[in-house]
Every structure is written in C-alpha cells, then in structure tokens.
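$ fold --in a.seq
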Amino acid sequence: MAKIKVGINGYGTIGKRVASAVAAQDDMELVGVTKTRPNFEALNAVRKGYDIYVPDSSVEAFRDAGVKIAGTLKDMYAKVDIVVDCTPGNVGEMYRDQYKEAGVKAIFQGGEDHALTGISFNSTANYSESWGAQLSRVVSCNTTGLLRTLYPIDKKYKIENAYVTIVRRAADPGDSKNGPINGLEPSVSLPTHHGPDVQSIMPWLNISTMAIKASTTLMHVHTVVAQLSQPASTDEIKEIFRKAPRVRLVRSKDGIKTTAQIMELARDLGRDRSDMYEIIVWEDGIKVVGNTLYYYQAVHQESDVIPENIDCIRSMCKAESDPCASVRKTNAALGITKE
C-alpha cells in the first residue's frame, strides 16, 4: 500500500511535533512543512531535511535570507493527500477554502471551532466518524485530556454529570508575550468553552467546566468530579485508567507530586522534545465516594494532541479501519508505553 503523503501547514509548537510524528510512521511520508518567516524554526526544519513551502508573499524574504524553499503552498497542495493545518487560530476558514479548491483533505486543530469542519476527532471516542472525511478537527489539548479519561468511564458506568476545573498554564515555554507572570486569572465567562468542546464528540455528556490561568508554562491540571449512574470502586476506576492506551498513572508517594516532576519523567523517558503524550492521572488522587468519582489529571499542552493527529490521518485516508490498531501503531512509533 502506498504511503500517505502528508503536508504540515504551520511549523510552530504543534506543527513541528506533528511533522516529527508523521516522519516516524512507516505508512506515511512527510512531503514538507510551511513557514511564513525564515526564522530559527524554519532553519531547524531545513536541518532535519524537511522541504519548506511558503506563501507567495514570503518567497522573497526566504530568498533574501538564503533559506532554500521547495515551492509555494499551492505546490505543496499538489503533492499531498492530506494537510495537517497547524496555523494560528482564526485563519482556518481561509485555509479551508484553499484546501477545498486544491482537492486535498485537511485536519484542523482545536483552536478552530467545531463548525469549521462539522467533525471533531478523538482516537478512542469517535475514530470512525472521520473515516474518509474531507475535513476534520482534532480537539484541543484540554478537551483531548478530558475525553481520554471521561469516555472510558462513561462507557462502563455512564456519567450523569461531570464538573471540571482547569488550572491552565498561562503560556507555552517558548512564549514570552503572555501572562499572568505573578498571579492567577479566572476565566469569568462561564461555563468555559471546554465543556461544549467535549460535547462535540460526546454530545450526551452533561459536563460543566471552569478555568483559571496560572503563572506556569509546564502543563494544565484538571480537577474532575463525576457523578456515576451506578456504583463503582476506586480500584475499578484505576483499572480503567491502567487499560486506557494514552493514560499514565503516577503516584505522589513515588515523588511525582507536581507538573515539574511529570516533565522531568518525560525527559528521563527520552521522549522527542521531552514530550509527555499521555494524560497523567495521580493514582493516589483517585477516590470514589458512593457514586461520586474524584480525580486529578495533568495535560502536556504541547504534545497530547500529536498522536491524535496521526490517527486522524489514518481514519480520513482510510488507511486503518480499526481504531485500536491505529492507536497501537502510533503509540509504538512514538514510544508511548505503559512501562
């Protein structure tokens, strides 16, 4: 079977990670990536051997900087089966029209609204919904995190209500423009968008979300309270998480008490860019009281959606009909293990 030819539009925080993940798959070929400016990320793409494609308006800037390009965006569209759009938010509609005109499939990220594509994607919860689709959208890092843990619980115990508070990182590590620097900033527009985003994939779930920005760059932390429709034990919930393919249990008594220590674990695992693709759940922070479940989880905002993008490529290009098989293949290529 011919490899799926993939282009990455946007080579920033998410785009460069998707590019590396695509390059690691034996059933995919990375055709190239796009940049609008010849900055250090463009130079790093060149060092990795990736072909660079640019908008027409950027051709001169790249030539003046001596950075070799393989062509324009339209040239890349002509060579690929699918584009993973990792451009900044609010430009999705323009690019959607370009992809349609070029006749290529496209995946958007969670910064765009569900309405842009009409389909949102999660590997475990609704893999088949994107099967053969022209357009799809991988939901945001926080939504991906909630789906990874809530969906398998709901599947077995049926969640009547879920209440989530998200303590958000204020900026990515490489971002020096955002804040807060020294404070906590509540999202006063309530409920926050995260609940409706989860419902774009689990429309039956009653979920309410609140969020607070914190002066950290490392990860998001979720506090989750779920009311179950039938009794469950703490050990049964732990077993669900142990079996979930992209959930990793850690214990505070083993020294993993903070998000800083989680990221240190990712470094020790030798991950590409020290990424933690899994959703981290504190095993000793899981508790069931009656029909009410409590737990904490941490989300590495730079990387948890990366394996989802890879699985979405396979679904949209009809390369693997079994979601479990795609997840196993992606996990193996990215070094996601339970050990």
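$ fold --in b.seq
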Amino acid sequence: MRARRVTLQDVAERTGFTVNTVSRALKNKPDISRATCEQIQKVAREMGYVRNYAASSLRSGRTKTIGLILGAMSNPYYAAVADAIHDAASSLGYTLLTLCSRENPEQERRAVEAALSRQVDGILLFPSRGAEESIQLMRAANMPYVLMSRYVNEGEDDCVLCDEEQGGYLATKHLIDSGRRNLAFLCGFNIIHSTEYRLKGFLRACDDFGIPEENRHVTVSHHNVDVVKTLCDWRDQGVDGIFVFCDMEAWNAASFLSDIGADVPKDIAIVGYDNIQGIIHFPMPLCTVDPSISEMIDQALTLLRRRIHHESMPPQIIRVPAKIVCRGSCGCLHAEK
C-alpha cells in the first residue's frame, strides 16, 4: 500500500519527463504533443494520480468550485435545477458544492458558512425568507454571489429570476381562455418574492379579464388537512379553475380533488408552475408555467463569473421570460403531447 498520495514528481520520474511537462500534459496544453499528453495521462491514471486542487488554489487564489444553496430538496424542481446547474458549471470547468437550506434562515446561514469555509469561488443562493444574515455574511467575506429565482432587497444584490408575475398572469389567463370563470390561487409555501408575485399575476389577470371579486379565491395552506378542506369548500362554491403555486402542489391538489369526487379537468381545471414534466415524467399531464430554467442558469453563471473576475458594475437584476405549456389539465383540446 502506498503511504502517500502520488505527486507530479512521481509521475515525472516514472515517465522520464520534467515536472513542468507532466503538469502541462495533464492539462492538455497545446504546446505538448497529443502523443505525449496521452502517454503521460495513461501513466498518471495507472499510478492513481489525482490533481491536488488545494495546492493549485493556493497558487491561483481560486478553487474552481461554486457553492449552490437550494431550498427543500424534496421538491423535484430543485433536483432538476441542481442537475442543470451541475452540467452548466461542469462545462465551464467548475465543480459544484451543493447544500440545502430547507427554506430555513438558520440552516441557510450554516450552509453559507460551510461554502465559505471550503473556499468556493462564488455562491448561487436560492434565498429563504429571512436571508438577510446570510447575504450580509457573503458580503462581509467579499464572496461573489448571485441570488436565484428571488430577491430580498431589490437593487442591492445580483439576482437572476423568472418574471413570476407574468408567469402567474399567464397561468390565470390560460384558465380563463379555457372557459373558467370562478378561479382560485392555491399556495402551500410562503416563499419570499415568488408567492407574492405569482399572486400579483393571478389578480392582474382577473382584473384584465373581468373576473368579479366573488369569483377570486386565495388560500395559503401549509398542511394537507387544510388543503383538502379548502378544495372541498371551493368545489361547493363552484370553483372551476385553480392556479397552484408549483407543480408538486398541483399534482397533490389533483389527487385530493379525485378523492373528494371532483374530476380534473372536467369539473376543475388546474395549472401549475415549474414545468417539471418537461424534465421528469409524471403520469398525469399538467398545464404549467415554464420558468426558463436553462436561460436563468446561463445568465446566473455568466453574472457570477463576471463577479469572480472582479468586474465592476452595479447590482444586476436579470428577469427571464415565463411561458405557458398546455398539456390538457385545463380541459383544452389542443394540449402539447
């Protein structure tokens, strides 16, 4: 058994090349021939050589690592986002350190501390309600960061997000276009920025299309028992279209409606938000708002890299467009297959 890690010097001695040549060959530098690169890399693999990024970071001041701090990982939206960020960051040569806040500001602060302690080059943070302490911690450490999907204090931080008010508007308009006139907004999470702006979009669409006040229903219910009671009440009140905060809640709502004898979409149409079904197959087709995840990630990584490289500019807020995806849970006959 080897008593220590294999070093560049070990690979150099085995191959007969200098340490500098070995180092450049392992990085596929163009001044080293392809044959020499392949020969050195083959020997390095056989010897079990792994690049020492800690030593490299001491020389360069960078670790080529990005910290990603997500909310509740039980929501497959975050799993899909994490996968997409991983692929995009990897293509740029970055490793991802993924942490979870569970939408709790104390856990979020500890996650930020963990990322800082591991000398990440920058942080992508999905901020919780109460994220001010975490943001101040990153500022004090001069850590480049970008807030994802939500902002805390508009104009003070770099932020990339979907136009969620427009998303809420499109979801509600989709219900109205499908002939629904007694509408509801159902939300199980009081998420900073997102809950407020999706609701704003819902109400603006109701205003624009003449939905009377008595036909607008809004509930934020954190427990399934309350959700079922709300759905029973709405069924009895003649609600025929529900915009649900996110796809996972929308599928839950559809299941609960089936349990109480309401048919989706014949009796009650449903539209969700996140377009999870565009990434992960679920058996029930769901109309939803696509928040342009890929564009949001590309914009966020571009902005974060500009900060990592010390580009001076005022705080940036970048909004990507939302679009509706119809799969038939609205009752429309022209659903996307």
